[in-house]
Amino acid sequence: MKKLLVSAVALAMLAGCSSSGTATSTANTGSGTAGKSVTIATDTDILSMNSSTSTDGTSFIALTMCEAGLTQLDEKNVPVSDLAESWDVSEDGLEYTFHIRKDAKWSDGTALTANDFVYAWNRLIDPETASDYAFLIDKNAESNTTNIKDWTAEDDQTFKVTLSKPCDFFLSLCAFPSLFPLNEKFVEEQGDQYALTTDNMLYCGPYTLTEWTPSTSWKFVKNDQYWDAASYTENVDEANWRLVQGQSAILDYQAGNIDYVKLTSEVIDDYAGKEDVVTSLTGYSWYLSLNFHNEALANNNIRKAMAYAINSDELCSSVLKDGSSPLEGIVTKSTTANADGEDFRNISGTVVLGYDEAKAKEAFEAGCKELGVDSVTLEVLYEDADVSKNCAAYVMNALEKVGFTTEAKCEPKKSRLQDMQNDNYDVALHRWGPDYADPQTYMDLFVTGASNNYGHYESEKYDSLIEKALTTDAADSTKRWEDFAEAEKVLVNEDTAIIPLYQAGNTALQNTKLTGIQYHGAGVDNYRHMKLAA
Amino acid sequence: MKKYIGKRLLISLATLLVILLVLFVMMDLMPGSPFNDEKLTEAQKALLYAKYGLDQPFLTRFITYLKNMLTGDFGVSYAINKDFSVSSMISSRLWISVKLGFMAMIIGTILGLILGILAALNHNTWIDTLCSTISVVGVSVPSYVFALLLCYFIAYKLGLFPILYNAAQQGKSLVLPAIALSFSPTANIARFTRSEMLDVLNSDYILLVKSKGLKDYKVILKHAMRNSLIPIITIMGPILVNLLTGSSVVEKVFGIPGLGTLLITAIQSNDYNVTIACAFVYSLMYIVAIFVVDVLYGVIDPRIRVAKEGGK
To answer: Do B128 and B119 meet the contact criterion of CB atoms below 8 Å apart?
Structure first.
């Protein structure tokens, strides 16, 4: 018995002492050993470093760090050159000729050529790859987002793309990781091991991925072989990502071990006004999806009553408090850009009805009269994330003030989506994130019969405007956006088929010495240019 | 004894098979798919299902899974780390969770025994009340509250241990989480030890030993402990498995890449292979733990051994 006790105690002590080479981590200002190092806390893991099958934000951020495409986006969302030194666009906008840099290299020393783009793009649309993003460039499908017809490598340095119709945002989409090049020989050699570890990948970006422990951490180190390495001398030498979240991550930030950590809704108030709080806007548009199969919701006055009843300003400032901002339409702010760098929201203006309690009550009464009912009960479907719960509570309260009766239906996200797909809801709190920097990514959603048109909104006027933008006016950027603006007015203002609520924001604590993080709502957040002041 | 073990093994295998079947059925019934339901169209999802063989009929998939499992292939992950082998994902995390669980178990057992013995020996004094209070607090307060308190006061304020899990200092990083997790087993073991010790201390043979003249501590260690051990061993098996499987919140607080967090993430993202493999591993651990406890009974208490054999 004694022996057992003694050995047990010894075991416990040994377990506590094993593999503790270094001292306890003390405050670190990023000037650790050689060169500048940054640590970023993230709450989502890398899904895949394989650019053909990657689909999530965190993977895209990682890919943008260690790989590169034809173009990259600058802070204003304008595409500038990356692996393509320059490009020629034909007069009619149907032919793009990219000139690949002669000094572009893969990390194993082989030259990066136009063929790498041909291979990668073919792989993206291959049905066997089953990529989520094939629809962007699938030349074999009936239609694809960019209207691409074909692509070829005329020689090692020339990559030619032909379109059937002009595409305003094609160059900005070339910065998207799904369209990054792949070294055919290397990828085929790796087979199904490709991109599963740092050794099964080749790099062509400003950093290389040197360490990767899935679901724990990953580390990037500057790549001297990058064509633009000369401009990166001031940028951080090492960037670490750690998959941690919550209060302990914030504590680690305060201890100086982490330079960037997201703030969760419960603690935002505690940090209000502190100098290291940063807010940014994402491209997520949160809105209420209204099911037209519900008798009450099929009535325009009822829908208008709902829209007038909700005060998005108050929702963002008093309930969400995380940097979210009220939406002026369904298309978000600062995410879209035309050839002149203009934001679609400046063109379209404000199309939401706005908060007006008196008008809401009026519309509600008118609607009830038309329907021949005294009351309207609506079931509000939302997911079990804290942000959604708070938003839904606010919305239901606002509706009840105006005369509605509401019932709450809170479910995990997958169940919520399933219910929407099965036409099993009245009002749902839903969101859409843009796939590219053009209003089309939002407007496509509400065309009759569209797969994400859960509310079954059907409007000939809306459909014809969208059709016009995609066909007749495809070549005229200005007219195209005007068509979209008009369509948005029909959708949100006249028909109130959906009720845009807010554009999701992000609040984080950021080391005041850290600068250079670029947010692209409709692209990939760019961490390439991080700098750490001394 | 051998017959007994053989029979138990067969039953265990059958149980595991049934568990797998139930898991398969339950995953099929889950709403949504392992893929991006928010964005993908039905056509896109159909392609993905075809790629991973998810469009096959239920029995085909189940039998293929069983066959692969026998060679150690638990499939690939769809939604957590795409195309990564599930067995490698689990083995790296299993080791960390097991280490954490054992550390918590050892701390809990030692502290629990000490508390329980102290309470029993000083029955109805203030020591007894103190130990009982500690037990109640340990059982009622959730482990993550302890975790956060330890993290804040000891790791952050005093800087004695890393705040978050650090792979370079694995042992040190696991100390605070182990302590946080150990409160509950400490409390349980303390309570059991106390009541068993009280029973045993009041029994006839202890009275005899005392009257023979043996000093108190010898009485306890030599005679009373061994007899009190049985119920404690009974609960140690399930406690250990609870520690291994229920550590997810503490893992989340300290950022430990353990099995608990993996299972929860897998369930939330409908990652079939990972969920089934994790749940299977947990079931396996539970069955093994119970099996070991049963065999240990026979070793510790000859009465049980004889009873089993005599019963033939």
So the answer is: yes
Buried b (16+ CB within 10 A) or exposed e, A441-469: bbbbbbbeeeebbbbebebeebbebbebb
> What whole-number distance in Å separates Cα of residue B41 and Cα of residue A189?
32
Q: Which of residues 277-316 of A touch B (CB under 8 A)?
A: none
Cβ atoms of A117 and A183 within 8 Å: the answer is no
Cβ-Cβ contacts under 8 Å, A215 against chain B: 80-81, 89, 93, 257, 261-262
CA distances to A149, A179, A447, A467 from A145, rounded to whole Å, are 11, 13, 15, 14
Q: How confident is the model at residue A18 (pLDDT cuts 50, 70, 90)?
A: very low
Q: Which residue of A has its CA nearest to B256?
A: A216
Contact B169 A20 (CB under 8 A): yes
- Which alpha helices (H) appear in A67-113, and where do they start and end? none
**A328 pLDDT more than 90:** yes
Q: Which pair of structure tokens corresponds to residue A343?
A: 């934001």
Question: CB–CB of A244 and B255 under 8 A?
Answer: yes
Q: Is residue B29 within 8 angstroms of chain A, CB to CB? A: no
pLDDT class of A102 with cuts at 50, 70, 90:
very high
Q: Are B2 and B8 in contact (CB under 8 A)?
A: no
Backbone angles phi, psi at A415, to 5 degrees: -70, -40
The 3-state secondary structure of B225-290, one letter per residue: HHHHHHHHHHHHHHHHHHHHHCCHHHHHHHCCCCHHHHHHHHHHCCCHHHHHHHHHHHHHHHHHHH
Q: CA B16 from chain center: how many Å? A: 17
Across the interface, do A251 and B254 touch by the CB < 8 Å criterion? no
Q: List the one residue out of A299, A353, A306 whose CA is nearest residue A327.
A: A353
What's the confidence (pLDDT) of residue B77?
94
Name the residue facing B31 among A214, A254, A414 (closest C-beta). A414
In this complex, how many residue pairs, one in chain A and one in chain B, have their CB atoms less than 8 Å apart? 170
Residue B156 contacts A, CB cutoff 8 Å: yes
| Neighboring chain B residues of A5 at a CB cutoff of 8 Å | 110, 113
Residue A261: beta bridge partners? A509
Phi, psi at A160, each rounded to 5°: -115, 135
Q: What is the pLDDT of residues A121-153, one digit of tens each?
A: 999 999 999 999 999 999 999 989 999 999 999
The Cα of B193 is separated from the nearest Cα of chain A by a number of Å equal to: 15
Is B233 part of the contact surface with chain A (CB cutoff 8 Å)?
no
Residue A368 has pLDDT above 70, yes or no: yes
- Could you tell me the end-to-end alpha-carbon distance of chain B, in angstroms, rounded to an integer? 11
Q: What percent of chain B has pLDDT over 90?
A: 38
Whether residue A214 and residue B166 make contact (CB cut-off 8 A), yes or no, is: no
Side chain identity at B54, as an amino acid letter? L
Give B167 to chain A, closest Cα distance, Å. 9
Q: Do A251 and B155 touch (CB under 8 A)?
A: yes
CA-CA distance, B166 to B172, in Å (whole number)? 8
Lookup: tokens for A368? 């009830």
Q: Is B290 within 8 Å of chain A by CB?
A: no
Whether residue A11 is predicted with pLDDT greater than 60 in this model: the reply is no
Minimal Cβ distance to A18: which of B30, B171, B265: B171
CB hemisphere CA count around B249 (13 angstroms): 11
Backbone angles phi, psi at A248, to 5 degrees: -70, -30
Q: Are A79 and A175 in contact (CB under 8 A)?
A: yes
For chain A, give the longest Cα–Cα distance.
90
Pairing of strands A148-155, A158-163: antiparallel
Q: What is the CA radius of gyration of chain B?
A: 24
| A45 Cβ under 8 Å from any chain B Cβ | yes
Q: How far is A371 from chain B (nearest CA, A)?
A: 33
SS3 A229: helix
